[in-house]
Design a protein that fits this description.
single chain; 198 residues; alpha/beta; Rossmann fold; five-stranded parallel β-sheet; 7 helices; 9 strands; globular; binds guanosine-5'-monophosphate
Length: 198
């Protein structure tokens, strides 16, 4: 696997903190970054595209891939499976940096691969009430899902210490700049990197 300069940035957070927006912003600015497209058994939301937001698969197909040891990591979250396929990551890493939007369970599993150049970032809102507001405004979940996502905050934040950086996303532009600085610091030996920015 070619992992000399290419980095793997993990962004984890409780649902609703702004991870997806930030991930897309980084990829738009730095074309060297690919977003890792996870496999999931969760049904697509109305705005989601198969193969772009996720690879949506049936539970049976996902379990076959588990048996084949095809995942770098996978986890069951809110009753659905989510996972990162080894083949896709290995292929992307030959030419690209990668951004992952995965949870703490996946981060723990990826950390075991010592040959991967991981940068682990955990995002939070300034408090739990703010998270609730954002989840309600996002309007993507049923009341039951919203409650589960809100309650998972306490569980998620237990794993802060597994991460290299904890960022508070109070202001999207500031938070983006902070992530950018972390990336630039880690890419300082790659002279072509900042020139690739859009
Ligand atoms: P959502 O259903 O809101 O898209 O995602 C729910 C949670 O699953 C989020 O915290 C997200 O980071 C996590 N997630 C998405 N893809 C993966 C994956 O491939 N592996 C793991 N471990 N978590 C994932």
């Amino acid at each position: 696997m070619a992992i000399d300069n290419n980095i793997m940035v993990i962004l984890s957070s409780p649902s609703g903190v702004g991870k997806t927006t930030l991930t897309k912003k980084i990829q738009q600015k730095y074309q060297s970054f690919k977003i890792s497209v996870s496999y999931t058994t969760r049904p697509p939301r109305s705005n989601e595209v198969d193969g772009v937001d996720y690879n949506f698969v049936k539970k049976q197909e996902f379990e076959k891939l588990i048996k084949k040891n095809a995942f770098y990591e996978y986890a069951k979250i809110f009753e659905n499976y989510y996972g990162t396929l080894k083949k896709n990551v290995d292929e992307s890493l030959k030419k690209n940096d990668i951004i992952f939007d995965i949870d703490w369970q996946g981060t723990k599993q990826l950390s075991k691969f010592k040959n991967l150049n991981l940068i682990k970032i955990f995002l939070i809102t300034e408090n739990k009430e703010e998270l609730k507001k954002r989840l309600i405004n996002r309007n993507q979940n049923t009341a039951d899902e919203l409650e589960k996502r809100y309650n998972s905050f306490d569980e998620d934040i237990k794993y802060w210490s597994d991460y290299d950086y904890i960022l508070i996303n109070k202001n999207l532009d500031v938070c983006f700049k902070q992530i950018e600085n972390i990336i630039l610091m880690n890419k300082k030996n790659d002279i072509n990197f900042s020139q690739k920015a859009q």
